[in-house]
């Protein structure tokens, strides 16, 4: 069995991951971790089939750590995992550039899966975005709208930023394929400018701009919409998460996979591709 540690254990995602893991034959609980000073440290909760004691230190052996804390928490647990050579699955968003650089550096020594979104469906959407963007070219306006619950701490969502980078990468490939002349006439390619919301007298929408908009309301788990609008038509893709379980299922899938991997920086797509290749072999 895989000895599992979960950080952010008192939060929504951490508790959900523990609930599902308690019913999963692949896992046994090594530790449920919360931030130092958390009022629940030292208490015991009944989560699924497990009696879970909340702690602030990892005092036992474990095979993998799932991080659902905060960016600052990630950096603290990253140091622990590096020293003890524990694989990490990171589901935290909102890291700054310095923190992301540290995570990537640590991946030279331990295996790390970092994903803004562990949903299988959302990762499938990310997989087809590049093909769609290259097919329609640079003549379509792109707008991204993400909606989350009122308690989400960062905006726009990490998933929305992942979508932006996926589109930029695809359109860079479009530029390379079409050549310098096409690139000069298509301002969308080659690192499209991004605007986060609009306010005031913005004038005409600049060609080649990607718009990103964040909505915070109620208890919405997560919804992302990508709109491509051109002359006479609009293409819209929407992914809606109905419960946090879809993210927890993906995180556990990543945890079960990464324990057998070498040091490296992995995305959820690597996990899904590896599972698909194994199923094809079988």
Q: End-to-end distance, in Å?
A: 22 Å
Shape: globular
Number of strands: 13
Overall structural class, as computed from helix and strand content, comes to: alpha/beta
H and E order? EHEEEEHEHEHEHHEEEEHEH
- Low-confidence regions: 180-190
Determine the mean pLDDT: 90
Q: Can you give the helix content as a percent range?
A: 25-40%
Q: Give me the number of helical elements.
A: 8
**What's the gyration radius in Å?**
20 Å
User: What is the spatial order of strands in the main beta sheet?
Assistant: 3-4-2-1-5-6-7-13
Biggest β-sheet, characterized? 8 strands, mixed
Q: What share of the residues does DSSP label as strand, in percent?
A: 25-35%
Describe this entry's structure for a reader.
There is one protein chain. With 282 residues, the chain is of the alpha/beta class. It is 38% helix and 26% strand. It has eight helices and 13 strands. A hairpin with a 2-residue loop joins strand 11 and strand 12. The chain is globular and about 60 Å long. The two termini are 22 Å apart. The relative contact order is 0.16. The model is unreliable at 180-190 (pLDDT under 50).
What does the secondary structure layout of this molecule look like, with pairings?
Elements: E1 2-7, H1 12-21, E2 27-33, E3 44-47, E4 50-55, E5 64-67, H2 71-84, E6 88-90, H3 97-106, E7 111-114, H4 120-136, E8 141-148, H5 158-178, H6 180-185, E9 194-196, E10 210-216, E11 222-230, E12 233-241, H7 245-258, E13 264-266, H8 268-281
Parallel strand pairs: 1-2, 1-5, 2-4, 5-6, 6-7, 7-13, 8-10, 9-10
Antiparallel strand pairs: 3-4, 8-11, 11-12
């Amino acid at each position: 069995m895989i000895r599992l540690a979960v950080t952010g254990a008192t939060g929504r995602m951490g508790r959900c991951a523990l609930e599902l893991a308690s019913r999963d034959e692949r896992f046994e609980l090594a530790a449920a971790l919360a931030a130092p000073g958390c009022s629940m440290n030292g208490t015991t909760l009944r989560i699924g089939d497990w009696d879970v004691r909340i702690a602030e230190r990892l005092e036992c052996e474990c095979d993998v750590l799932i991080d659902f804390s905060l960016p600052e928490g990630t950096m603290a647990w990253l140091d622990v995992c590096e020293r003890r050579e524990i694989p990490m699955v990171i589901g935290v968003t909102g890291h700054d550039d310095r923190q992301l650089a540290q995570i990537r550096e640590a991946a030279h020594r331990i295996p790390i899966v970092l994903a803004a979104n562990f949903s299988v469906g959302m990762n499938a959407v990310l997989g087809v975005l590049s093909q769609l963007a290259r097919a329609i070219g640079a003549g379509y306006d792109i707008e991204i709208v993400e909606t989350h619950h009122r308690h989400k701490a960062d905006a726009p969502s990490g998933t929305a930023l992942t979508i932006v980078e996926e589109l930029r990468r695809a359109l860079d490939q479009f530029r390379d394929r079409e050549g310098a002349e096409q690139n000069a006439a298509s301002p969308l390619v080659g690192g499209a400018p991004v605007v986060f919301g609009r306010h005031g007298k913005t004038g005409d929408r600049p060609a080649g701009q990607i718009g990103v908009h964040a909505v915070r309301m109620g208890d919405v788990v997560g919804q992302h919409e990508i709109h491509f609008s051109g002359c006479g038509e609009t293409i819209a893709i929407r992914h809606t998460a109905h419960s946090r379980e879809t993210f927890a299922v993906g995180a556990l899938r990543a945890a079960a996979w990464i324990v057998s991997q070498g040091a490296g920086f992995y995305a959820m797509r690597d996990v899904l591709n590896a599972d698909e290749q194994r199923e094809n072999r079988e």
